[in-house]
Amino acid sequence: MRLQLLSDLHLETEAYTPEPSGDAELLVLAGDIDSRWDGLERFARWPVPVLFVAGNHEFDRRELRSAWPALRERCASLGITLLEREQHLRTDKAGRRIRFVATTRWCDFDLFGAAGRERAMRAAGYFMHVMRARCDGRLFDAAAVRDEALACRAWLAQALAERPMPTPPS
Predict the structure, then answer these.
(1) Which residue, 90, 101, 142, 157, could crosslink 124 as a Cys pair with Cβ 3.0–4.6 Å?
(2) Spatial CA neighbour of 149 closest among 117, 114, 105
(3) What pLDDT digit, counting tens, does each position of 21-45 carry?
(4) pLDDT digits (tens, 9 = 90+) for 121-155
């Protein structure tokens, strides 16, 4: 399957107009597309189906738990398939089934191991305040981001270990 991949567009601040790829069978929007969600409209009439995996900036100035259903509703109204801890099966032009397994990959702050985690989380604290996202009524701080990252990672590992879905969804 030929994919067109767009990521980190930050359409809320960038004057960029994405163009469809002539030979793509599917567009994958891989996070940080538009923190206001307005820019998603330009993908509503894309010539191929659109899968969207949210990035951290899709939740700027939002409450994480209530933002997910609102983002899902927004995407559905535009004909965009939002994936969060979900699998989606597509069939390409040649009849091959391709399984997409997707979740937001929050930062776990583990790049430099346990020894560097605390320092990385302190440094990230500033950016968490800039994002002003909340989760369960509290600031979505570095510790909460790490918790979300570990939950998403565990889901992804389990999903990848499973057998693919047997039939395409209707």
Answers:
(1) 142
(2) 105
(3) 989 999 999 999 999 999 999 999 9
(4) 888 887 776 678 898 888 898 889 999 999 999 99
Residue 169: inside a domain: no
Torsion of CA 124, 128, 129, 133, to 10 degrees: 180
- Distance, CA of 128 to CA of 118 (rounded, Å): 15
This model's pTM is above 0.85: yes
Gap between the Cα atoms of 128 and 113, Å rounded: 21
What is each CA distance from 149 to 103, 107, 109, 169, in whole angstroms?
A: 10, 6, 9, 28
132, 135, 145, 79: CA torsion to nearest 10:
-90
DSSP structural state of residue 114: H
Is 127 part of a structural domain of the chain? Answer: yes
